[in-house]
Design a protein that fits this description.
It contains 15 helices and four strands. It has 295 residues and is mostly helical. The protein is globular, with a radius of gyration of 21 Å. It starts with a helix and ends in a 6-residue tail after the last helix.
Length: 295
């Protein structure tokens, strides 16, 4: 049996295992493990690999059974058995010695893991404001974001920051619309709805998104190496509640979502403007700290 055949066989076993349980139970249990094992220590990261947990969620959306009748309960024991199957699948993938160059392996591992180790930093929100709200191209960015999401850029940044306080400061794993409370005095109900819709997917929309050619038309070995596609939508909407897959994922998404979304929507026009914007942003920083440079 070839290595690819072994991967295929294990992959099918995992899908069959997933289909024995209720898909919602698998996803919500995995979210619990993601929050229980936030990667703030090496030991926690060694217990459960974050990329493996996100892979479970992805496979459940794609192949899970979301009908409750006749299905088994899914608790910690069942979760650990499923996780071990994912762990074994990853063990069948390419070894470092099987790459043409060890640097290629290091690059793929870094791409998969390093974003998980970034610590939340308020400056990421300030940077987005400087780049997209205060630049001379701000009207272009504002119009583009409004077309994509119906949101003003400043509203997105501020609501993202408010949401982060729930996950990072209050250490919650979910929120309801009511969480924004007094913020509704500053933001209309419509604005908050658009914000939450922009960063979340329910089960049906997640399946549609993950079934797109971009994600589902990849080899198994490649799927195991790329970061989770859920970076674009870090909240799972279910039963009137927005479940945060992971605080780390939410933070990473909020600091990159504006750039990624606008670039993907209109790559040529966006990059024509953003190159100049970024140059001015760097110049502003150098001027502030008094470093001389050649223009």
């Amino acid at each position: 049996m070839t290595d690819n055949q072994k991967l295929e066989k294990q992959y099918k076993k995992i899908i069959n295992r997933i289909q024995k349980y209720n898909g919602y139970d698998i996803i919500l249990t995995t979210i619990t493990f993601l929050h229980r094992n936030e990667p703030n220590t090496i030991q926690r990261m060694q217990n459960y690999f974050f990329w493996s947990l996100f892979f479970i969620i992805k496979l459940t959306f794609l192949y899970g059974n979301f009908f409750s009748y006749g299905q088994r309960g899914f608790g910690d024991r069942e979760f650990n058995l499923l996780y071990k199957m994912i762990y074994d699948l990853e063990g069948m993938n390419k070894l470092p010695s099987e790459y043409d160059n060890v640097n290629i392996w290091l690059k793929t591992e870094a791409f998969k893991q390093f974003w998980i180790q970034e610590k939340p930093n308020i400056t990421s929100f300030t940077r987005q404001k400087l780049l997209f709200s205060l630049d001379i191209h701000r009207l272009f960015y504002s119009k583009l974001m409004k077309t994509i999401s119906g949101l003003e850029i400043n509203d997105f940044i501020e609501l993202a920051f408010i949401s982060m306080s729930n996950f990072i400061v209050k250490k919650k794993s979910s929120l309801k619309k009511e969480f924004f409370g007094k913020s509704i005095e500053s933001y209309s109900n419509e604005t908050i709805d658009k914000f939450l819709s922009f960063i979340s997917l329910d089960k049906d929309k997640a399946q549609e998104y993950l079934n797109s050619i971009e994600f589902n038309n990849k080899k198994i070995e490649d799927q195991l190496l790329i970061p989770t596609p859920l970076m674009r939508f870090p909240l799972f909407f279910h039963n009137d509640t927005y479940h945060c897959y992971s605080k780390q994922l939410f933070y990473y998404s909020m600091q990159n979502n504006l750039y990624t979304t606008m670039k993907d929507n209109d790559p040529q026009s966006f990059m024509d403007k953003f190159g100049n914007t970024f140059e001015r942003y760097i110049k502003q920083g150098l001027d502030y700290i008094g470093i001389k440079y050649i223009e």
